[in-house]
Specification:
Chain lengths: ~110, ~110
Amino acid sequence: RKEVEQDPGPFNVPEGATVAFNCTYSNSASQSFFWYRQDCRKEPKLLMSVYSSGNEDGRFTAQLNRASQYISLLIRDSKLSDSATYLCVVGRLGDYKLSFGAGTTVTVRA
Amino acid sequence: GAVVSQHPSWVICKSGTSVKIECRSLDFQATTMFWYRQFPKQSLMLMATSNEGSKATYEQGVEKDKFLINHASLTLSTLTVTSAHPEDSSFYICSARLVKETQYFGPGTRLLVL
């Protein structure tokens, strides 16, 4: 079983729409959680950390459910520039290693 | 934010040659650097963890004699793919850790072995 699993999508949405997707992680000892964004043929870039109480950064809202071991990302008022692959990333306590999901592709159309 | 560079950005080489990739943290000293590999439509897979002045720690299934890592200073780590073969063709990305779990990624190196 993969450590981090994501729905690959693609999610194809019109501009202005809301899109949401989840990922699940298998290691209950995971301590840190992130969403990264990866554009085609580029390196991942940190979008936001995910905190237990849930957190928001502009149009992006992340939620963490430790009991069910899933993380979600919601994008409101989608922009064309939001088109990318969103990587769910989970960190372990102590060794700072990160485990990456394969990504969820979002395409925002005009 | 913290900047990490990688060089070269892409390499095309013949089978059997060795390829060296450099990863530099430009404006900070990185406690730890990580090397990842990403095949098309797959997730980043951690290959090894590199600490300055000590031997790298390799993930299970990664051959340390094939992927040589040297971490000469707090701002430079190198990955050498020895005797590269077509199956080594991939996107190699390094990252540098500053504090806690936050990793800053280099722009990646695309390797194509013919």
